[in-house]
Amino acid sequence: MAQRPIPVLSVTSEIFPLVKTGGLADVAGALPGALADEGVAVTTLVPGYPAVLAALGGARPVLAIADLFGGPARLLRGTASGLDLLALDCPHLYARDGNPYLGPDGRDWPDNALRFAALSAIAASVGRGAVKGYQPKLVHAHDWQAGLTAAYLHHGGPKPPPSVFTVHNLAFQGQFPASLLPVLGLPASGFRFDGFEHHGAIGYLKAGLQLASHVTTVSPTYADEIRTEAGGMGFDGLLRYRGTTMSGILNGIDTTVWNPETDPLIAARFSVAAPAGRKACKAALQQRFGLATDRKTLLFGVVSRLSWQKGLDLLADVLDDVLALGAQLVLLGAGEPALEQRFRQAAASHPGQIGVQIGYDEALAHQIQAGVDALIVPSRFEPCGLTQLCALRYGSVPVVSRVGGLADTVEDGITGVVFDELTADGLRGAVARTAALFATPRRFAALGSAGMGRDVSWRSPARQYADLYRALIATH
Ligand code: ADP
């Protein structure tokens, strides 16, 4: 007899396709579908931002909260884009358009401490059965915005359900003044080094890392790196202490959204067996950016947040070398103003060779993955990285630094180019190696085909999450 699916509550501050600033949204949006195939029924709790409430179909109220940190709130259960959602409709905290974390001035909303404590507090209530007829067997919270979930579960009474906390990027830690403790309804007794205290502040990420039943991160290599002083960003001691209750599970990508055989956003469809469409995609991309439409010119691409983490200052440093190789570059990204400015200027100085679009553009991201010969990802650290997975799927050759998930997903000389030295020289060498490979078209095509043959779907990761959930529930 088929077993009934295991109900799991996922808690996240962003979810594709409703609200996205980065990889977290992709993971939160794709994992439920993949877990369904593994016998896990995921319901996702998300803040009721306008974009979420507008998309929610069949919504019905399942919980009312008279006062959630200064105003009323209610939980709506409904579906959107095939996802089973609990939306926390709480206008005084979430009725704001645009980026979920930043106000119109580009700075963090001043009440982010409350906005994400609210999400976590409600997650813990739901975990403890506050919604009639819905009792999750496990709560899976993501990143600092949901980090206090483990604290609210821990301090909310005896026998909380087991919890998993996934850290997608240790650099975002969510620290807030200790003076907020009474407002947040967390006990002073938990404000200690082995609780949710972090260097005298309330640590949202710390709470998740310390108090969840199990911690995961998004690649095995990143899991190793963050247990070292060099990569631990102050948490390496705690993460080493967790021993086997912390592990790395690689991300996948949604291979229905990212499918070159059916993608409606790209100029032509293609596959390993029928690769011709790729040429049309390259020509269309070159045209869009006003670059010389030449099939034989090596076209590099970047799709990225523009931040120190992503190492794109190194790329800016070696642009002359890229051009000296006779190559072209298209870049789509947004982030640090100084980097945006450098790339804008580079495009203005080298029309026909460098094309830059500053901003966020989902369709163009697909077009770049489908049209470039090689995608550059020179990250200084990279928990998993999704863009190189998209590149593999679309037959563009990833050129990556050997860190975190990049090291776990790209094989040097087989599916891509991997370099060790995280400097301009290191990247310069990798770019030159890529150009040398490109000069032998059959060899270069073999890299792309090998990449397209790799399984970058959620199938294997979802199985690992499901196995973890089952083990935690069984031993709870
Ligand atoms: P991170 O989450 O650190 O930003 P990831 O590689 O894990 O990096 O995930 C980034 C996701 O966001 C990918 O799906 C990528 O295609 C997408 N992305 C990043 N920047 C842009 C952009 N400017 N426009 C469109 N998509 C972008």
Task: Give structural notes.
With 476 residues, this protein is an alpha/beta fold. It folds into two domains: 6-252 and 459-475, Rossmann fold (3-Layer(aba) Sandwich); 277-452, 3-Layer(aba) Sandwich (Rossmann fold), CATH 3.40.50. It has 19 helices and 18 strands. The strands form three sheets. It has a nine-stranded mixed β-sheet with strand order 3-4-5-2-1-6-7-11-12, with helices on both faces. Strands 15-14-13-16-17-18 form a six-stranded parallel β-sheet, sandwiched between helices. A three-stranded antiparallel β-sheet has the order 8-10-9. A hairpin with a 7-residue loop joins β3 and β4 (73-80). α4 packs across α5 (148-155), α5 (148-155) packs across α7 and α15 (387-394) crosses α18. The longest helix has 16 residues, at 112-127. The radius of gyration is 23 Å and the shape is globular. The two termini are 25 Å apart. The protein binds adenosine-5'-diphosphate. Adenosine-5'-diphosphate binds at residues 22-23, 26, 303-305, 332-334, 360-362, 365, 384-387, 390.
Q: Characterize the main sheet.
A: 9 strands, mixed
Outline the low-pLDDT stretches: none
Fraction of residues in helix:
25-40%
CATH-level-4 superfamily name of the largest domain: Glycogen Phosphorylase B
Query: Into which percentage range does the β-strand content fall?
Result: 15-25%
The distinct bound ligands, ions and cofactors come out as: adenosine-5'-diphosphate
Number of strands: 18
CATH class of the largest domain: Alpha Beta
CATH level-two architecture of the largest domain: 3-Layer(aba) Sandwich
Question: Whole-Å distance between the termini?
Answer: 25 Å
Basic shape: globular
Alpha-beta classification: alpha/beta
Q: Briefly note the CATH topology name of the largest domain.
A: Rossmann fold
What is the overall number of helices?
Answer: 19
Q: Can you give the mean pLDDT?
A: 97
Rounded to an integer, what's the Rg over CA atoms?
Answer: 23 Å
- Largest sheet, order of strands side by side? 3-4-5-2-1-6-7-11-12
| Count of distinct structural domains | 2
